[in-house]
Amino acid sequence: MTVTTAPTARYRKDYKAPSFSIDTVDLHFYLDDTCTRVVNTMQVQKRDDEPDLVLDGEQLQLVQVTLDDRLLVAEQDYKVGRKSLTIYNVPAQFSLTIENTINPSANTALEGLYKSAGVFCSQCEAEGFRRITYFLDRPDVLSVYTTTLYVANKEEYPHLLSNGNKVDTGTTAEGLSWVRWHDPYPKPSYLFAVVAGDFDLLEDTYTTAEGRQVLLQFFVDKGNLNKAYFAMEALKNSMRWDEQRFGLSYDLDIYMVVAVDFFNMGAMENKGLNVFNSKFVLADEASATDQDFINVEAVIGHEYFHNWTGNRITCRDWFQLSLKEGLTVFREQEFSADQGMRAVNRIQDVRIMRTHQFEEDAGPMAHAIRPDIVVEMNNFYTVTIYNKGAEVVRMLHTLLGEQTFQAGMRRYIADNDGKAATCNDFLQAMEQASGRNLNQFKRWYSQAGTPEISVQTDYSRRQRKLTVTISQASDKPANAPFHIPIQVELLSQQGEPLHPPELPVNSVLELTEPEQTFTFTGLKEAPVFAPLANFSAPVKCNDTRSLDELITITRFAQDAFLRWDAVQQLYSQAVHEAIAQGGALTLPNALIDGLKASLTDGNSDPALVALLLQIPSEEGVAAEFKYVPVSAIHRAITELHEALARGLYTELLQAWDMHWPQATDKQAAFSKEAIAARMLCNTCLGYLAAMTDSEAVHERLQRQFAAEQSMTLVFGALQAAVHNQHRLAEVQLAQFANRWQHDPLVMDKWLAVQATVRHASSIAKVHELTEHSAFDWSNPNRVYALLASFSHNFAQLHQADGAGYALLVSAIKRLNTANPQVASRLLSPLLNWRRFNDARQGLLQQVLSDLRNMPDLAPDLFEKIEQSLR
Ligand code: B3K
Ligand code: ZN
Question: Which Gene Ontology BP terms does the record give (predicted)?
Answer without folding.
Answer: proteolysis
